[in-house]
Amino acid sequence: MKSDFVSNVSHELRTPLASIRVFGEFLRLGRVESEEKVREYGAFIETESRRLTGLVNNILDFSRIESGRKTYKFRKTDLNEILEKTLQTFDIRLRQSGFAIRRKEIERFPPIKIDGDAIAQAVSNLVDNAVKYSGGSKEISVSLARDNGWAVISVEDQGIGISKEDQKKIFERFHRVSTGLVHEVRGSGLGLSIVNHIVHAHQGNVQVSSEPGSGSTFSIRLPLDLEISNA
Ligand SMILES: Nc1ncnc2c1ncn2[C@@H]1O[C@H](COP(=O)(O)OP(=O)(O)O)[C@@H](O)[C@H]1O
Ligand SMILES: [Mg+2]
Prior knowledge:
The protein has helices spanning 2-28, 35-66, 79-95, 116-132, 164-167, 191-201; strands at 75-77, 100-106, 112-114, 139-147, 150-157, 205-210, 216-223. The protein has 231 residues and is α+β, with helices and mostly antiparallel strands. The strands form two sheets. Strands 2-4-5-7-6 form a five-stranded mixed sheet. Strands 1-3 form a two-stranded antiparallel ribbon. Strand 6 and strand 7 (216-223) form a beta hairpin. The radius of gyration is 18 Å and the shape is globular. Magnesium ion is lined by residues 125, 128-129, 187, 191.
């Protein structure tokens, strides 16, 4: 399991690194004709770097979680802003591949007590999965809604879906569904275990609803009246 993990993680890191190198080379060689292209390549390098940071943060967080050192800073935070900023980094990255992230039902929330960086990372992990496991479909919808005392962030894809059996295991660290597409898609099986940890630290929960072949919806549910006394 350990050597699989190291090999998976390394491969996952190499993809954004390769893009950054290629776009950097284009720019250095001065082969980019228009101002617009220069900006586009710059944006690409920026978002791929962000993605790399996200992957490294996952690994660091995983190690902190394992050793019980992961801490959270809960502060009154604008959840709408956190969500929109997170989605925007995907917008840029996905533009070229024809994906669209649709914002459906975005309700406005007053500031709520969360660890904004952690929630951004959790949402990123869900959107990253929605993209990776989309199969041929290119549609992802995100919503933010109120359900009684909860803020609910949902990420919905029309992708390959997950069987009932696997739904029970995917939140375990390293667990990856061993059939079909997954072998062609890079991943180290940390994402959902981190999402789970982050959301539980907020006294919330993560729900999944999915059918093989017709997509998945992951929902992060955060209590609006979090009683944690720090920061
Ligand atoms: N949106 C999704 N659609 C289909 N399968 C998914 C989705 N999200 C997660 N999975 C399954 O759950 C597994 C665990 O996800 P995750 O912890 O993020 O690890 P990774 O993406 O690195 O494989 C994935 O390998 C995949 O098999
Ligand atoms: Mg993942």
